[in-house]
Amino acid sequence: QVQLQESGPGLVKPSETLSLTCTVSGGSVTVGTYYWSWIRQPPGKGLEWIGYIYDRGITNYNPSLKSRVTISLDTSKNQVSLKLTSMTAVDTAVYYCARGPPGDPNWFDPWGQGTQVTVSS
Amino acid sequence: DIQMTQSPSSVSASVGDRVTITCRASQGISSWLAWYQQKPGKAPKLLIYTASSLQSGVPSRFSGSGSGTDFTLTISSLQPEDFATYFCQQANSFPFTFGPGTKVDLK
Q1: According to the model, what pLDDT value does residue B78 have?
Q2: Most buried among A30, A96, A118, B3, using CB within 10 Å?
Q3: Residues in a beta bridge with A19
């Protein structure tokens, strides 16, 4: 059974770049049929889809974040990475990675437990 | 972007009650809708996809219906482990968007 675990700095300064990793166990990120997504949830608010990657490098990003976001795969470490530049307070959120069903980008299951990111000087 | 709304924003119910949550899309999304359950401090869990398909392992007391712009999630007999927040999500077009959530708590 595949499991996902996010990790990264809990605190980021304004204007800095956020780098998060999602370590996958029980499955391989190199299997081309799966879509790997990042989703975030600001405190007390709803969910926002950030984007996904599949087939070793094809990406699709939320237009609201597209200029600042990069999602990539590290096949040697079996990880999915997220980079978000020019961080501001509005980027404070719990960040989740999630996988879709085989060949299906539309739904998210399973999810990682999430990692809290706070933007503050 | 397609805007998703949910009603009510919260509902108080008792164990054994039938609970219905509504989700509305700002434009037609066919059946490209999912429902998730989220408990405090936990990741969301997929319950329903394509509006009415039950995800493997999800109890049959959960059901979904609707198409176009109006959808419902029904819990036929609320159980103690069902007290949570429920989100809908559209997958008709990018970017995928979620509803604001409906909190189900104990009356």
Answers
A1: 97
A2: A96
A3: A83
